[in-house]
Amino acid sequence: MNVSIQERTQKANVTTLVVSGEVDAYTAPQLREKLMPLCKADREIHLDLSQVDYMDSTGLGVLIGAYKSLRAQNGRLVLTGISPRLNRLLQITNLTEIIDIEDGV
């Protein structure tokens, strides 16, 4: 399967990545390559996941890695456009307790 990632810079320190497709063991490295260089001090990254059809534990690992990196540098990771299926996965893994999730896209 494929994943597509589009970057939109809103302000100097706020970037939105629009992710579409499936984030799994095969495609998660592409998300990591795009996301991790953006994890800098005082940076806010919004991940629009409204077009993500599927995410497995490898994709969750990328989210956790970005969250940890941003938090260590006084940054913030925000997830938007979460489908009910993905929301359930985030709840099961308790990531809803640590990662900011916004309803709007």
From TrEMBL:
<dbReference type="InterPro" id="IPR003658">
    <property type="entry name" value="Anti-sigma_ant"/>
</dbReference>
<comment type="function">
    <text>Positive regulator of sigma-B activity. Non-phosphorylated RsbV binds to RsbW, preventing its association with sigma-B. When phosphorylated, releases RsbW, which is then free to complex with and inactivate sigma-B.</text>
</comment>
<feature type="domain" description="STAS">
    <location>
        <begin position="4"/>
        <end position="105"/>
    </location>
</feature>
<dbReference type="Pfam" id="PF01740">
    <property type="entry name" value="STAS"/>
</dbReference>
<dbReference type="InterPro" id="IPR002645">
    <property type="entry name" value="STAS_dom"/>
</dbReference>
<protein>
    <recommendedName>
        <fullName>Anti-sigma factor antagonist</fullName>
    </recommendedName>
</protein>
<comment type="similarity">
    <text>Belongs to the anti-sigma-factor antagonist family.</text>
</comment>
<keyword id="KW-0597">Phosphoprotein</keyword>
<dbReference type="InterPro" id="IPR036513">
    <property type="entry name" value="STAS_dom_sf"/>
</dbReference>
